[in-house]
């Protein structure tokens, strides 16, 4: 969905042109990223039911796989979730056999979270499925669109880093 702005005198709605363009880019990016994530999640739930985990659990599991041994409070900080929410999500992942909660040998008061092989398999299946869906879709695009997406990836990674720095 393209956003259209009024460009009277080179400005959109009284904003300097460079700010108006940034606002338009931000709006269009949100118009693309949200629906893309939703359609991938919906396809995953429909076509890979064994890979179906609630989104929040999948996020926590992904972080634990990326940072084995992470503490519960660090999961909350990284994902910007309340402590009670993280505790509930971790309990669900432990009950599902996807995560182990182990005492920290250096400080027995702390618990470290580690993925199980079932957790790694679940994460791998989900990631592989989404990657496969995107690859098929990208193959349907023109070579120019394919190149444009590929060339945009480094800037998108920098955008993620910039958003993380601002939070």
Q: How many alpha or pi helices?
A: 6
Give the CATH superfamily of the largest domain: Winged helix-like DNA-binding domain superfamily/Winged helix DNA-binding domain
Estimate nothing, just give the exact number of structural domains: 2
Q: Percent range for helical residues?
A: 55-70%
Shape: globular
- Mean pLDDT across residues: 87
Structural class: mainly alpha
CATH class descriptor name of the largest domain: Mainly Alpha
Provide a compact summary of the structure:
This protein has 167 residues and is mostly helical. It has helices spanning 17-47, 55-66, 72-79, 83-95, 117-139, 143-166; strands at 70-71, 99-104, 107-115.
Structural write-up:
- With 167 residues, this protein is mostly helical.
- It folds into two domains: 9-47; 53-166, Winged helix-like DNA-binding domain superfamily/Winged helix DNA-binding domain (Arc Repressor Mutant, subunit A, Orthogonal Bundle).
- Helix content is 66%, strand content 10%.
- The chain has a three-stranded antiparallel β-sheet with strand order 1-3-2.
- Helix 3 (72-79) crosses helix 4 (83-95).
- The chain is globular, with a radius of gyration of 20 Å.
């Amino acid at each position: 969905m393209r956003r259209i702005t009024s460009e009277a005198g080179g400005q959109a709605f009284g904003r300097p042109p460079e700010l108006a363009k940034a606002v338009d880019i931000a709006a269009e990016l949100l118009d693309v990223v949200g629906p893309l994530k939703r359609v991938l999640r919906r396809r995953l739930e429909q076509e890979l039911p064994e890979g179906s985990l609630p989104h929040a659990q999948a996020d926590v599991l992904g972080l634990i796989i990326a940072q084995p041994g992470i503490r519960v409070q660090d999961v909350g900080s990284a994902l910007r979730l309340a402590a009670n929410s993280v505790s509930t999500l971790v309990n669900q992942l432990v009950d599902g056999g996807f995560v182990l909660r182990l005492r920290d040998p250096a400080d027995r008061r702390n618990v470290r979270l580690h993925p199980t092989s079932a957790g790694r398999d679940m994460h791998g299946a989900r990631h592989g499925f989404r990657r496969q869906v995107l690859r098929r879709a990208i193959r349907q695009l023109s070579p120019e669109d394919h190149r444009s997406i590929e060339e945009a990836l480094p800037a998108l990674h920098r955008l993620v880093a910039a958003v993380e720095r601002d939070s």
